[in-house]
Design a protein that fits this description.
mainly alpha, 2 helices, rod-shaped
């Protein structure tokens, strides 16, 4: 086997450089896609959090609802007692 000439080494280094550049371009594209999907997920999560906050703000707490039903039942029973 003969020793490689400087031009052979330069040619192989240039090929290696091309392979590395293509690999980096692929990785860069994949990372850009992941960043885009992450941004979309962040926006979707923020939207869901806002919608959940709106729902929580609009619901009646169970203890308050129970007290309201009890007062209504008391009023109905007093009304029935007075009416008879």
């Amino acid at each position: 086997m003969t020793d490689p000439t400087p031009s052979d080494v330069a040619l192989e280094l240039e090929r290696l450089r091309g392979v590395v550049e293509v690999g980096f371009a692929r990785v860069d594209g994949a990372l850009a896609l992941l960043v885009q999907r992450n941004d979309q997920t962040d926006r979707l999560l923020a939207d869901h959090e806002q919608r959940l906050d709106d729902l929580e703000r609009g619901r009646w707490p169970l203890p308050s609802l129970a007290a309201l039903v009890a007062v209504a039942a008391l009023l109905v029973s007093v009304w029935q007692t007075v009416a008879h």
